[in-house]
């Protein structure tokens, strides 16, 4: 990095529409034909990297956080800075750095905010170094670093939406992942999509680990549920290609009916209340985002029912409708000279 420059990077979060959890290896190997479908949204993780006088400085204004240390390793012990510190430690910039960052989504929302932040930070740290994050290599880098921080397996779906924006169908074939990106019209999605924050954070690592462990132990119920999730995800991918929102709504509902059977931690009273209220108002269906247990719930509804769905959800205590739009743009990174 040029000592007189700063680099800003931004990457979108996502809503997962179907097939989450199956992006964890080897679950998709055990369920051939798996696909994960997600949509990038205009809640973006941002960061700015510039040279520091010495050591490492990490700043998160939305968390009232400003920490300094001689090395990134010293900052990994704090969970608020562990991911960013781990990326600095892994990429090893050749100058002392200051990283200012914001996740762009509520903590524990299930919207892939930490993964979007990891993509943005990695891009800013490697900008101008000749290192490339293009293709599977960038996905594998941020996945491995995030797995190291979580201490549990991390899937890959969040990184593709962060890098590329739009709608992604990730097809898991033997020995490779085929990323199929579809363009999106934000106005089309705004007529049908609603995102509701229950106000309760979730833990993706813990929830996914419970499902992961039980599947590898041969739990018959989890195996059946994952088979059903994979089928709903294939139907979602086919509907997304046709831009068939009613079919996508039915697939969303089918996916959730199977997902909520995976483990008791996947749903919660707040999630169930929100889905019931939205269905009463005319939604085709809804599902918890990410690993569930809390966080956000995504809904699809007929265009003439989206307003009533949002109004009904807005009347629930403890939560709020989050204004979001589909995001065509993925990662972008710009450098400027400090004056």
Total strands: the figure is 12
Counted by DSSP, the helix tally is 11
Q: Roughly how many Å apart are the termini? A: 16 Å
Poorly predicted tracts of residues: none
Specify the structural class: alpha+beta
**Quaternary status:** single chain
CATH architecture of the largest domain: 2-Layer Sandwich
Indicate the percent of residues in helices. 25-40%
Fraction in beta strands: 15-25%
Tally of structural domains? 2
Order of helices and strands: EHEEEHEHHHEEHEHHHHEEHEE
Task: Write down the overall geometry.
Answer: globular
Sheet with most strands: 8 strands, mixed
Per CATH, what is the topology of the largest domain? Ribosomal Protein S5, domain 2
**Arithmetic mean pLDDT:** 93
CATH class descriptor of the largest domain: Alpha Beta
How many whole angstroms does the radius of gyration measure?
Answer: 20 Å
Topology (elements, then pairings):
Blueprint (H helix, E strand, L loop, with lengths): L4 E14 L8 H4 L4 E17 L4 E5 L4 E5 L12 H10 L5 E6 L10 H14 L8 H16 L6 H8 L2 E7 L2 E7 L3 H5 L2 E5 L6 H13 L3 H23 L2 H15 L9 H12 L4 E4 L7 E5 L2 H12 L5 E3 L9 E6 L2
Parallel strand pairs: 3-5
Antiparallel strand pairs: 1-2, 1-12, 2-5, 2-6, 3-4, 6-7, 8-10, 8-11, 9-10
